[in-house]
């Protein structure tokens, strides 16, 4: 998050310009500077002596959280958020890896932290962002409310003396989340690249629709705050409100994960946004986009949609703009400056264009390590130089125009054996299914079924109840045509569950549909009822 020095610079230049909007709260740069100064100095006085100092938050988006993040960043303390929808096991594992000295929680998620045994008498600063501490002092833990921090005296916060570190967490779809560690900062270089390429400036108003615990949320917000622009916090689950904010607040840039973007461009109120809004840059990521979303975004928002691909371990690596995305909807984009993408065969040899394999990335944004395991790095002579690549969990291909097309992921319910990539274009199949007029949304899950072995489980939502039977037949036929090597079990569902960051909740979805499947050899299943 932005630090106090940059906040004060903007406050001196335009004190009454709005920096952060959160509902009815409109925080000017002068107010922002005052609040961050007070909170940072108070945290400095209460900070435990334990080093390295690290901060974690479990809280929904709010201006109070933005101030808290800016305050700890101003003290040189790395700050990372945890997915409060992940459950106690994943949360406890993340806390144990991070070992924070500052814990920031909102009332809504306080019970989750306590269920994980925190603070548990540890020597930490425990900040209640929207409530008062309850109960007696807990050992060496210092508990304080954000309100108390805010009424402290302003001053000049002094950064703690410790080596630079930055942390983030993987989504944990293949188990507990892994903590990603970086020991050098790449922010200045990436900031310069993005600002130069997309002409962002201080007049931009950026809408945040993802939780700030997701790296993309504070990462993109920081760009516009650093420029002196305005950041607006919006709800990810209310398309009508997002559309209102875009119009009323003069939003010019935003990042929306695919499910949120799909809801916005499907809403009747978005029909004329291309004429009634200031939007000039809309970014999406998290998974591939289907043609329906791309076409609707073009019609309703104008030629503003960009798609990026990156991972927690590698940063933002490829990008594709609206014109190219419109004619090549299954592509993720071309490598951005400072990034090299290569596709490898099972022996980790580079494959020619058009061949599917495991995606490996070389980048100045690469992680240094995981907290508890070693990353899958390799050194490779490619493109006329020797580079250090990280082998990702994704499979894909490079097309003839040099664009990356992702075809599947090796994490979650779809696992590759012996580290080899999937041999099925899962994302291509999903794109084909989403082109069917009877399908509203779908997810293709590759798993192992008892008595069957490797198979595809394909939940889909029909566009209307009366289209369920025709939808089932069309989806089944497409699966058989596109992936004849695996049996496909198709099942209609009311909806596909997504996380706030746009990921399909694959384990939850699979658990809910397995009892509905007719798991018998294909020749013994009735076409009318199989999987229904």
Automatic annotation (TrEMBL):
Superkingdom of source = Bacteria
Using the record's annotation, list all stretches that form the AMP-dependent synthetase/ligase domain: 8-370
What the entry lists under Pfam families is as follows:
AMP-binding
- PROSITE patterns in alphabetical order: AMP_BINDING (PS00455)
* CDD domains referenced in this protein's UniProt entry, alphabetically: AFD_class_I
Query: What SUPFAM superfamilies would the database entry show?
Result: Acetyl-CoA synthetase-like (SSF56801)
What InterPro entries does the database record attribute to this sequence? AMP-bd_C_sf, AMP-binding_CS, AMP-dep_synth/lig_dom, ANL_N_sf, ATP-dep_AMP-bd_enzyme
Instruction: Kindly provide the name given to this protein in its UniProt entry.
Output: Class I adenylate-forming enzyme family protein
